[in-house]
């Protein structure tokens, strides 16, 4: 259960190792017979169906172990990325995202995503470098003087989008968007709390850093507004 990468990698290897044989030996036979079947894609589809069976059996066994469940999700997302980008798998075919979209699994996924995101926010705001810009010494890069915590937070949001963007159902994507909105609001509250501590020094370093953080986040969110 703690090594889903073993069978996921094995399937990717099988697909890669058989592609030449399927393209050069099997596909011509299908073409000659007037079939529209793509041998390589059908081979991939059949192996993915085995993965789905394996996931359906494994997930109930690790649903309440955060570490194992999170590791499984991470490995499945890496598998899916390679399956589509390297092996040309079709989005209309069955995929692991259908298993992750099932109610009990999906709700658990949302819960652990939120848990680990909040932990990340705790650590980045308690960091000594939280209010310092990574690029403070490079003037042409650092026009907005973005503190490290704001940049890390927006990366955290962007990573969440990458994780859910291939979900088959728009309703599931919207639930993830809801989580992102919760995280934005949580970060806003944290910034407000820090700002209240700094009101006596409104021209101080940290107060200005908070204003820069807010400006940066608002600007990036506006840029993302065109992303459906």
What does this protein look like?
- With 228 residues, this protein is mainly alpha-helical.
- The chain has two domains: 4-101, no CATH class; 108-227, no CATH class.
- The chain has helices spanning 4-32, 39-62, 66-85, 96-100, 103-126, 148-164, 170-197, 205-224.
- The longest helix has 29 residues, at 4-32.
- The protein is elongated, with a radius of gyration of 23 Å.
Provide the fold topology.
Elements: H1 4-32, H2 39-62, H3 66-85, H4 96-100, H5 103-126, H6 148-164, H7 170-197, H8 205-224
InterPro entries: RINT1_Tip20
Protein name: RINT1 protein
Organism: Leptocoma aspasia
Main sheet record: none
| Proportion of helical residues | over 70%
Number of helices: 8
Gross morphology = elongated
What distance lies between the first and last C-alpha atoms, to the nearest angstrom?
Answer: 36 Å
Structural class: mainly alpha
Supply Rg: 23 Å
Counting structural domains, the number is 2
What is the arithmetic mean of pLDDT? 92
Give the SSE order as H and E letters.
HHHHHHHH
Report the uncertain regions: none
Number of strands: 0
Multimeric status of the protein? single chain
Strand content: under 5%
